[in-house]
Amino acid sequence: xxxxxxxxxxPVGYGAAYGLLPITWIIFTAILLYRLTVETGKFExxxxxxxxxxxxxxxxALLVAFAFGAxxxxxxxxxxx
Length: 81
Description:
Radius of gyration: 20 Å
Structural class: mainly alpha
Largest sheet: none
Strand content: under 5%
Oligomer: single chain
């Protein structure tokens, strides 16, 4: 059996960092954007505008999920689908 050298683990670490860095960056900026809108009071405007579109909570959730996903795709810059 071959001995596992530290340089064998380097590509694994590099691949994990290469895959996780864009994901964590997208999540970090999404949380930052959310906190910014809450602290500036703009979140209430967004909430009121979505609430005035329809009274059905299911459709509101669908609109929020679609719009948030489209925003993250455009804002990420990584070509994420």
